[in-house]
Amino acid sequence: MLLVAPITTMRRQTVISPRVTQTRVFHRDLKNQWPSVDRTFGEYIWDTEGNKYLDATAGGSVVVNVGYSVPRVLAAMQEQAAQACFSAAFTSQPQEELGFQVTHFAPGDLDYVRFTSGGSEANESAIKLARKYFVEAGKPDKWKVIGRHRGFHGNTLGALSATGHRGRRTEYEPLLVPFPHVSAPYRYRCEQCAAGETCTNHLMAELESVIASQGSNSIAAFIAEPVVGAASMGTTPPPDYWPRLREVCDKHDILLIADEVMTGMGRTGRNFAVDHWGVVPDMITSGKGIGSGYTPLGAVIARRKIWEAVSEGTGQWEHGFTYGGNPLSCAVGLAVLRCLQDQDLVQQAATNGDYLKKNLVDQLGEHPLVGEIDGLGMHLGIELVADRTTKRPFAKEVAISKRLAAACRSRGVLVNPTFTDNGDGLSGDRFGVTPIFTFTRAQLDQTVEAIQLSLDEVLNNLSAKN
């Protein structure tokens, strides 16, 4: 006889506590736990210990573009939640409307969109859609995706395979697809740029060499961030880089994917960062700012020719995620996009970004710890070095960016220290200054002052130990 234990003996006792003092969450960093957030509003975060922070990280990972607790967005959330939160089989008016608005926000004939729950899913979708396009076009041998060494495209396995950032790949290498990688523009450490020439020529020559060695008939796509994010925050290419990249991809029938998970939705002072160079990629991926932290949301936006290849072929794209395109997230995304447009926040990001970058360069550009300040709009990175003359990075164990961020936090300003390992993929320190678009000039000045004082504090502490 099969004996089944009573349900009551199989269940743990539920413990209800008004304040949890010991976490059961498997956090990203188990050695250093931040305090718990209590509330957010505008450009500020309060923790449960009563501390108030000016958030120059846009939510920690460059997400919150329009500000916290915006009444218009909260109202859209409440209204849609009361009407319909989820449906897997049906489309919805919020999804259709957001699709219409996002494709009009994008350049050229990027006329079709597939919604996801975030940036990793968006890049995973773009990789699979590139493969799908060539299968439908009768070129099933084209499947590889070329990535860049200083690039990060997400933590799903396809996106991580296209990622070239060694620090994020190493432990998972056995699980990854062997995609090829090429160098990324990095003016600060480029010998040709140091000599006053553009590095585009040698980068395009390297790309052509990789295409030749792999065989262009095997390559489906090239993926890159227009302005680098997590792998080397704020690194900006020469003006001719993206136009030349477009030419090479067209020459070899390779789809060009612009990863705008961080830089899109106005962050660099244009709708999308590729707009700075007048380039229309074959796909743009979006995340983070498209939902501005209110809801998990991402998107892959594709050119008309990709949609036509599928619609005129099998008509099926066997791919999707449970929460992709759900009505609640799409209603939130629509409210966020309307905030961007109605308040002219993209232009505000451009204007504020110019002001912020100038102040950073003027106030910090000659600091003994600062090697480079780079980026566009509200997407800026500062590289810290042990020696300005040789550009020698700090040893990894010094954790210089985390020290700087901790010193800023003690002054009530948050900056992001996690954009590291940019030097050779295993060492090097850049931190991000990526404020919310609605920062006032006074808040931007406060951010610069906190960074300056914190740099001095860190330098003094290093000198004292030596």
What would you say this structure looks like, in words?
With 466 residues, the protein is an alpha/beta fold. Helices cover 37% and strands 14% of the residues. It has 15 helices and 14 strands. The protein has helices spanning 7-10, 58-62, 71-83, 93-105, 119-136, 157-162, 166-169, 191-194, 200-214, 241-251, 304-311, 327-342, 345-364, 400-410, 441-465, and strands at residues 37-41, 44-47, 52-55, 112-116, 144-148, 181-182, 219-224, 255-259, 283-286, 298-302, 370-376, 379-384, 413-414, 429-433. The protein has a 7-stranded mixed sheet with strand order 4-10-9-8-7-5-6, sandwiched between helices. Strand 1 and strand 2 form a beta hairpin. The longest helix is centred in the last third of the chain and has 25 residues, at 441-465. The relative contact order is 0.15. The mean pLDDT is 93.
How are the SSEs placed, and which strands pair?
Layout: H1 7-10, E1 37-41, E2 44-47, E3 52-55, H2 58-62, H3 71-83, H4 93-105, E4 112-116, H5 119-136, E5 144-148, H6 157-162, H7 166-169, E6 181-182, H8 191-194, H9 200-214, E7 219-224, H10 241-251, E8 255-259, E9 283-286, E10 298-302, H11 304-311, H12 327-342, H13 345-364, E11 370-376, E12 379-384, H14 400-410, E13 413-414, E14 429-433, H15 441-465
Parallel strand pairs: 3-13, 5-6, 5-7, 7-8, 8-9
Antiparallel strand pairs: 1-2, 2-3, 4-10, 9-10, 11-12, 12-14
Helix pairs in contact: 3-12, 4-12, 5-11, 9-10, 13-15, 14-15
